[in-house]
Specification:
The chain is of the alpha+beta class and about 325 residues long. Helices cover about 35% and strands about 35% of the residues. It folds into three domains: about 110 residues, no CATH class; about 130 residues, Jelly Rolls (Sandwich); about 80 residues, Phage tail protein beta-alpha-beta fold (3-Layer(bab) Sandwich). The strands form three sheets. Strands 1, 2, 3, 4, 5, 6, 7, 8, 9, 10, 11, 12 and 13 form a 13-stranded mixed β-sheet that branches. The longest helix has about 30 residues. The radius of gyration is 30 Å and the shape is elongated. The termini are far apart.
Length: about 325
C-alpha cells in the first residue's frame, strides 16, 4: 500500500469521525467519485467503522468481507468474481490494518485529557490553550481540557462561581456545562454562579445561549446586561437585568449602582459580603440609589446608606437589620 493510499485511509477515518474541515471533506468526496473502486473502498471502511470497532480476528474479518460481498453482489460461483474477490479481499485486509492503526493513532492524538482546578479560600484563574481565561471564585470547582482540539471547546463548572473571558472563534463554539444546564458562546464574557439549588448567569459582553440539558425548548439567548436564573427545585426560569447585580465583585471588588432600587442594592450586598438584609417593604420603595465603591468594606457602604436614606441600620452577626427612623 502506497503512502498516498495510507494518507487517504487516515483522512477517511477523520471524515467518519466528523473531524475534517470543509476543504478535507471536498478532497474525500472527490476521491470517492474518481472511480468505482474508490467508492467500494469507502463503503467497506464505512462498514467496518460502523461496527463500532476494527475486526481483528480471522472470523471477524470474514464476516466483514461477507457484508462487503453482499453489497457488491459478487457471485461466488463465477471465476472472474472469485479472482476479483481475492484481490478485493487483500485490499480489505490492508484497509483493516491501516484503519486499525489510524484509529489508534488518531485516538492517541485527539483524546481529551481533562484537568481539575479547585479553589478554597483564595481566588484563582485558568488560561485555556485557546487563549480563554476563566476566573474562579472561592470554593469553586472547574474541569477543563489540557489542550483544546477538534471543533468543540467545552468545560464543566461543577461547583461555585466563575467569570469567563472567552477568546472569539466563530468556527468552534465554547460551552460550559453546569450539572443540568449548559451555556454556549462564540466569544464573550459572562459570569456563572452554580449553587446547590440555583444557577445564575449574567452577561457582560457579547451573546450567550442558555439551555437546560433535558429540555430542548428551554433555549434562551442573552446579551449584554441580561441575566437568567434557574431554580433546580421548582424548575422555574427567571429573566432579569444584570446591570446592578455586581456579579464580578468577588473578582474586582467593585460595586456600581445606576438608578438601582434598594431591592437590587441589598441583593448585591448580600452576594458581595455574604450577609442577610432584613428590610421592611416601605424602605424598598425609597428613591433609586447611585454610587460607586471600590475595595470598600461593608461598614463603609452602610455608612453611605445611612447618610442617603432616613434609616437606622444595625448589624447582628451576618444579619443586617434596617428600620425607618
Amino acid at each position: 500500500m502506497t503512502m498516498e493510499e495510507k494518507e487517504i485511509f487516515l483522512l477517511i477515518t477523520r471524515y467518519l469521525a466528523s473531524h475534517t474541515s470543509d476543504e478535507e471533506n471536498k478532497v474525500i468526496e472527490q476521491w470517492i467519485e474518481q472511480s468505482e473502486d474508490n467508492k467500494r473502498t469507502f463503503q467497506a471502511i464505512n462498514l467496518i467503522w460502523n461496527k463500532g470497532r476494527v475486526p481483528v480476528s480471522a472470523e471477524e474479518t470474514e464476516q466483514a468481507l461477507k457484508k462487503v460481498r453482499a453489497r457488491l453482489r459478487i457471485g461466488e460461483n463465477k471465476k472472474s468474481a472469485v479472482r476479483k474477490l481475492v484481490v478485493w479481499s487483500r485490499q480489505i485486509a490492508a484497509a483493516i490494518l491501516v484503519v486499525g492503526i489510524a484509529c489508534f493513532i488518531y485516538y492517541q492524538r485527539h483524546r481529551i485529557v481533562y484537568l481539575t482546578k479547585t479553589t478554597t479560600s483564595t481566588i484563582d484563574s485558568v488560561r485555556l490553550s485557546d487563549g480563554s481565561v476563566i476566573y474562579l471564585s472561592l470554593h469553586s470547582k472547574l474541569r477543563y481540557p489540557e489542550h483544546i482540539t477538534g471543533k468543540q471547546r467545552q468545560v464543566f463548572l461543577e461547583a461555585g462561581e466563575a467569570f469567563f473571558k472567552i477568546a472569539r472563534d466563530t468556527t468552534r463554539p465554547f460551552s460550559v456545562e453546569i450539572n443540568d444546564s449548559k451555556v454556549t458562546v462564540l466569544g464573550t464574557s459572562f459570569n456563572i454562579r452554580n449553587m446547590p439549588q440555583d444557577v445564575e448567569l449574567s452577561v457582560n459582553t457579547g451573546k450567550v445561549l442558555f439551555e437546560l440539558l433535558n429540555d430542548d425548548n428551554s433555549k434562551t439567548l442573552l446579551t449584554h446586561g441580561m441575566a437568567v436564573a434557574y431554580n433546580r427545585v421548582t424548575h422555574a426560569v427567571r429573566h432579569f437585568s444584570s446591570v446592578n447585580m455586581n456579579n464580578t465583585f468577588w473578582m474586582n471588588k467593585e460595586l456600581n449602582f445606576e438608578n438601582a432600587s434598594l431591592t437590587e442594592v441589598f441583593k448585591s450586598l448580600e452576594n458581595a459580603y455574604n450577609v442577610k438584609f432584613v428590610v421592611p417593604d416601605s424602605i424598598r420603595t425609597f428613591n433609586k440609589f447611585n454610587a460607586e465603591f471600590k475595595n470598600t468594606s461593608l461598614e463603609n457602604v452602610l455608612k453611605v446608606l445611612r447618610k442617603v436614606y432616613p434609616v437606622d441600620i444595625n448589624r447582628q452577626g451576618d444579619e443586617i437589620i434596617i428600620r425607618n427612623k
